[in-house]
Amino acid sequence: MTLTDDSRTGAQLICEALLREGVEIMFGIPGGAIMPFYHAMWEYRTQLRHVLCRHEQGAGHAAEGYARTTGRAGVCIGTSGPGATNLVTPIADAWMDSTPLIAITGQVSSAALGTDAFQETDITGITVPITKHNYLVQRAEDIPYVIKEAFHLARTGRPGPVLIDITKDAQQARTVPRWDQPLRLPRHKSARVLDRGAVERALTLLAGAKRPLIMAGNGVIQAGAAAELRALAERTGIPVITTLHGKGAFPESHELSLGMSGMHGWVHVNRAIQECDVLFNIGGRFDDRVTGKVSTFAPRAQIIHADIDFTEIGKVVPTSVGICADARATLACMLELAPAGNHAAWLSRIRDNQREHEPHQAYRRRPNTPTLMPHDVFASLDRSFHRHSGYRVVTDVGQHQMWAAQLIEWGRPRSHITSGGSGTMGFSIPAALGAALAFPGETIWVIVGDGGFQMTNQEIATMVQEDVRNVKIAVINNGYLGMVRQWQELFEGARYSGTKLTGPDIALLAEAYGVRGIKVERPDDADKAIEAAWAHDGPVVIDFRVEREANVFPIVPAGKSIGEMMVTATASA
Amino acid sequence: MRGARKVARGHTIVALLQDHPGVLHRAVSLLRRRGYNIASLAVGRSEVEGVSRMTLVVEQEDVEQVVKQLNRLVEVLQVDDVTHDPTIEREVVLVKVAAGGNMQSIVSVALGYSATIADVGMGTMLLELSGSPAKVEGFLERLSPFGILEATRTGRIAMVRGRATHSAAELVSDLVASTPAPQSPEQWLSQADGINGTN
């Protein structure tokens, strides 16, 4: 091909369309049906970096990590068949956590569609329920428009995953591209105009409230509305609680910050929800991990719910005022109109409640034992985060995820990344890879259990190959699938069915990958190991051999009211 | 009682969809994931090119959330639960009955229901009826003693009486209210996007 020729292969058009969307990095694995795209991407490699992952699930999570930390759409690539099905888990994860993700998959040639051809899978059919939209592209000339629309859908409104399945012949065919096609999205509900009347009604409710609360979710972070949230809280004096994904939306060092609510939230926070008279949820979706038993959730409260997705309003709890708009637009409008307020009496009641329960809050402190407790590790990590700056933390799924949420003080948007809605074990290490490539000047900490670590640790090899040096992995290693074991202990008569987990020597495995491995078995060594990891120029894996049967408290048993919290294996609050 | 004149349980949902491959799958998938059974589904082209109209009957008490989720689909232009609206509902049935010496009786039933005799074969008679779901039910019930060999029904289609509130064209003009009436679907589709914009 010569540069004077206007025609391009479909594969080249994918590259050019991605560049037009501002893509700089993609995560994937090649295979038969996607080879034309890989062939073309070589020509664009100086602008469009490809990171070869070890598993498509890793590629998908890496793209999610990139997206969650930057706010841009992450791009992952797989071939047809197993390549595409391996992307299903991260696509579902992105769907549940509203992460802008573009998945590009190769597909068998259009003539072979539906014939059970080698590595043919109906991936558009499979991903219908877990994507905002998906495309089966069979003509090269459709590629520029489809990619443009796909990015628009992934990024606007409530962000989410979009899959583009492109047949091999469409990648190979030549065409003269048309780049000027306007979007054809009639009635697409990505942008709703803010209803000022609803905002005024919400403010009237809040102004009349004696015990109001703000609950901040992922939408605040996605909309870049943390500053507006803080200003509104300070103006009105209303205390703020966050969901798991709201961590970072409001600084936890702030006097109005109460912390996290829900299944593993603090007692005083869940109590505050049960006592409040107006609950303003901004950018959260009342997940069952937040509400507990819905019929008993916030029984005295009128609910104001602001969410960019109109299907969320009224879905779980009856709503007094629904505001369907971007969190930033909502909060900005509220700031225009909200009068100054003060809820010192209510706040001090919550703080009294907090102090009153302090004696019971043994879960916040380590027990008196020479064993390395998870609490030691989280206290050390939290201390190190207070000493250092320029870091983000990716957690996996399970006990360590909840300890991290509880025991580390979070402050900055997009600095706490985790798999929330889907609860995808194995998320953290590849997601950290994506985050580390997005922010090479920062340190990306991974906190992961030994179960999750053994699901996707092969992406450490990707880090080595890509010379990623800014990832530090803390493995909270208790030799169990700890959260399931905890449930078995508390609710199923300690029958540890299928939860005992044998693993490799994680520090040795790290060394085998060519990165630094450290084993920590005593409480006194935790700080030293963490500082060594910060200081080391390259990935580090710390194997924290913690007490095997430590539990996360408080816990609201599944299906119970958030007013019924277990604070130890035998005591409730 | 609300909706007493309708089928006791179930909702009639009317939706306008872009006429694309896969759009039906996406819509139906939202019902399937909840285990909802679709009693009937009728879909065809609407009065606007590129836009299909679908009538869906779901045997379920509460469809509010699924209607919202249908509305969220990219290719779904509008969704309405018309269960409690004053509507005209129609269905077409083709039914083949065994016809021997009783042909005259079958013809009487057909005449009684204003059905059409579409075909008469050796020992069979093929009848065609368009009517309300209740009329179609009654018709089939009356024919069953003769021996129904085969029956096929289109599924319900529904339209709200009076001023058309579910017109695809109205939807279009609503979208492009500030601009002159567009000429082609392509044109209004692109203009619609311009108005909706991005955020």
| Biggest sheet character of chain B | 5 strands, antiparallel
Radius of gyration of chain B over all CA atoms, rounded: 20 Å
User: What share of residues are in beta strands of chain A?
Assistant: 15-25%
The domain count of chain A comes to 3
Give the proportion of residues in helices of chain B.
25-40%
CATH class wording of the largest domain in chain B: Alpha Beta
Counting DSSP E segments of at least 2 residues, the number of strands of chain A comes to: 20
SSE string of chain B: EHEEHEEHEEHEEHH
Classify the beta-strand content of chain B into a percent band.
25-35%
> CATH superfamily of the largest domain in chain A, called what?
Thiamin diphosphate (ThDP)-binding fold, Pyr/PP domains
**Large-scale geometry of chain A:** globular
Known CATH architecture of the largest domain in chain A = 3-Layer(aba) Sandwich
Q: How many distinct domains of chain B?
A: 2
Provide a count of the helices of chain A: 23
Oligomeric status of the shown chains? Answer: heterodimer
Instruction: Report the biggest beta sheet of chain A as strand number plus sense, adding barrel if it closes.
Output: 6 strands, parallel
State the CATH topology of the largest domain in chain A.
Rossmann fold
Q: Just name the CATH architecture of the largest domain in chain B.
A: 2-Layer Sandwich
Number of helices of chain B: 6
Q: Output mean pLDDT of chain A.
A: 95
Beginning-to-end CA distance, first to last residue of chain A: 72 Å
